[in-house]
Amino acid sequence: MVYSCNFIGIAIFAKKLNMSKKEFRPEKRIGKSKAYKAEERQKASDQRNRHFDADKRREDRRGAAENKKGYSKFVKRSTNTSFSKAKEGTIPDDKMRINKFLAQGGTCSRREAEKFVTAGAVTINGKVVTDLSYKVSPSDLVKFNGETIRGEKKKYILLNKPKDFITTTSDDRGRKTVMQLVESACTERVYPVGRLDRNTTGLLLFTNDGDLAKKLVHPKHGVRKIYHVTLDKKLAKHHLNAIANGITLDDGPAPVDSVSYIDGSSHDQVGIELHIGRNRIVRRIFESLGYEVVHLDRVVFGNLTKKDVKRGSWKHLDKKELDLLRML
Predict the structure, then answer these.
(1) Which member of 55, 131, 164, 197 is catalytic?
(2) Has this prediction a pTM greater than 0.70?
(3) Could you read off the pLDDT of 40-69 as tens digits, one per residue?
(4) How do strand 200-207 and strand 293-301 relate by DSSP bridges?
(5) CA–CA distance from 114 to each of 97, 104, 110, 141, 142 (Å)?
(6) Which domains does the chain have, with CATH numbers?
(7) Three-state DSSP state, 290
(8) Best CA proximity match to 312, nearest among 163, 177, 170, 186
(9) Annotated catalytic, 171?
(10) Concatenated DSSP letters for 179-247?
């Protein structure tokens, strides 16, 4: 009797087990590693598509530069730097590579300096030096094309240029140059980054940092410039749309990033943003449509604005402005 009861109990348990197996339909599961890889691939694809969009790319760079996103949660750890300090009794190495020395002296960029050195245009202590690995010491006398070059501290000066000044370091016809406006800004030799026409006003940067200057004027870096344009007559709506869509000049297409009427002003006042820097490009765009530019004022250059800089005056860039400029 006991055996029969046990047998019946086992049979009932087995029947329930078989029923539960039939009712159980396990869904296909994705391993954590596969799901993670798929998510990472999707993120990479989204980031790549965003990078190909020029507007979104500029937005990401500007946001990263201004807000420093993603860095605030990290705490900089104190590190032991004693190994990098000069030991007592030793002489610190103040020497500098020759191409870097020329770039810091405001002569040219580092890459251009390499070409000048190999061409024999640089002398050190009276001897021609063509070795790019040569390091300049503080006591060396360096000359480029017969002119003495000094390893100067880098300077960055922003000028709000007035009318009737030409953008050049000197003029044999005796005309006023922009260098006369910043001659008291520093003792180092600085040069204008890019140029503004004689009758164009607004922001003009001066520096002796050859590498940064070359970067800012190179088309591939796309440094934005915004101009306030005053025309001799009201700009027609279809001409505004034509400029926005991009017109073609004698030297090729002239794409702009944006163009619009200025709020609160008549339609002869226009704002235009672009990255290209060809000669007289803004004036030629409007002249091709039958308009004359009465006044042209550059109000934005990269991340720099005319805030606190009156017409004809200048200022030294602060650290924040310089950091943002380097990240463009």
Answers:
(1) 197
(2) no
(3) 778 777 777 776 777 777 777 777 766 654
(4) parallel
(5) 10, 13, 6, 18, 15
(6) 96-149 (3.10.290.10), 156-326 (3.30.2350.10)
(7) coil
(8) 163
(9) no
(10) GGTSTTT-SS--EESS---TTEEEEEEEES-HHHHHHHH-GGG---EEEEEEESSPPPHHHHHHHHH-E
